[in-house]
């Protein structure tokens, strides 16, 4: 196993970095610099699942956060990956060297998780704020965790989480998935939509809450991204934890997601950028 060859510490942070929040009795998220890592399971139980693997060089922090939540020496039954971008798999190898557990992802993400293929380059030319402008420094080469990697079940079930389902959410990446629990309408939306303006350094730093489309500098298929948001809005989630930003719930979430679904072309799709073409600009 190995992290990507361009894996490096990225000097970004937010006011919530290093803090965790319990939003359901068995759903907790920890903000690692600018990205959320989610732990699902009752803290009194020894069985829990980790969703995503955080920023580069953050493995110890994530292990410490898990032990604070579940107890010394704990380990998840599995790691679920929403997708393989650098800020969601940045510490995956460190975690797997510490925890001997399987990793599940959508097969369309496998080339980026088995060392076979790099993601398209981040786009610093895209319309957006400072975090978009400096995106050329972000890692995009593949990790290789092939020996631990398994496909998510085709029937939509989630290993270790019988009350949850996974849903394809392409656009931001080919094999991105989200996780949904219908009983309380909890949605882990990955980067299909996020609750902070991810290209704005100011808004990321202060974690200003607002429903936004996927991060612009790493989204390559805008029509698929819009279709995904439309499908997720139909789920009528009551609470969401996105890949970036703070959790949202209730009326504010519903109204923001409805508006994004309806006005995605003006709210989410940038006016310019190299991944906008005649077949990719709804």
Q: Could you characterize what this model shows?
A:
By secondary structure, the protein is an alpha/beta fold. The chain has a single domain, classed as 4-Layer Sandwich (Metallo-beta-lactamase, Chain A), CATH 3.60.15. It is 24% helix and 20% strand. The protein contains nine helices and 13 strands. Strands 1-2-3-4-5-6-7 form a seven-stranded mixed sheet, with helices on one face. Strands 8-9-10-11-12-13 form a six-stranded mixed sheet. A hairpin with a 2-residue loop joins strand 1 and strand 2. It starts with 19 loop residues before the first strand and ends in a 15-residue tail after the last helix. The mean pLDDT is 95.
Top-tier CATH class: Alpha Beta
Q: What is the radius of gyration computed over CA atoms, rounded to a whole number of angstroms?
A: 17 Å
Identify the CATH homologous superfamily.
Ribonuclease Z/Hydroxyacylglutathione hydrolase-like
Supply the helix-strand structural class. alpha/beta
- How is the largest sheet built, in terms of strand order? 1-2-3-4-5-6-7
How helical, in percent, are the residues?
10-25%
CATH architecture: 4-Layer Sandwich
Mean pLDDT equals 95
Terminal Cα span: 39 Å
State the domain count.
1
Per DSSP, the total helix count is 9
Number of strands: 13
């Amino acid at each position: 196993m190995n992290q990507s060859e361009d894996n490096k510490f990225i000097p970004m942070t937010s006011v919530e970095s290093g803090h965790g929040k319990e939003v359901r009795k068995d759903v907790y998220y920890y903000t690692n610099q600018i990205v959320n890592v989610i732990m699902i399971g009752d803290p009194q139980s020894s069985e829990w699942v980790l969703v995503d693997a955080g920023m580069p060089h953050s493995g110890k922090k994530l292990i410490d956060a898990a032990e604070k939540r579940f107890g010394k020496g704990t380990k998840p039954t599995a790691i679920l990956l929403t997708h393989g971008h650098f800020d969601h798999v940045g510490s995956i190898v460190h975690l797997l060297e510490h925890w001997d557990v399987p990793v599940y992802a959508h097969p369309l993400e496998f080339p980026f998780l088995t060392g076979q293929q790099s993601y398209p380059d981040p786009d610093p030319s895209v319309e957006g704020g400072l975090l978009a402008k400096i995106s050329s420094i972000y890692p995009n080469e593949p990790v290789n965790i092939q020996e631990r990697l398994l496909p998510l079940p085709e029937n939509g079930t989630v290993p270790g989480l019988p009350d949850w389902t996974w849903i394809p959410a392409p656009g931001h990446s080919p094999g991105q998935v989200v996780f949904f629990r219908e009983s309380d309408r909890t949605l882990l939306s990955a980067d299909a939509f996020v609750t902070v303006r991810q290209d704005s350094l100011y808004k990321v730093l202060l974690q200003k809450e607002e429903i936004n489309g996927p991060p612009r500098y790493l989204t390559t298929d805008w029509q698929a991204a819009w279709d995904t948001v439309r499908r997720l809005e139909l789920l009528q989630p009551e609470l969401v934890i996105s890949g970036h930003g703070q959790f949202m719930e209730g009326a504010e979430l519903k109204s923001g997601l409805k508006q994004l679904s309806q006005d995605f072309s003006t709210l989410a799709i940038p006016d310019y950028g190299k991944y906008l073409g005649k077949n990719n600009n709804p």
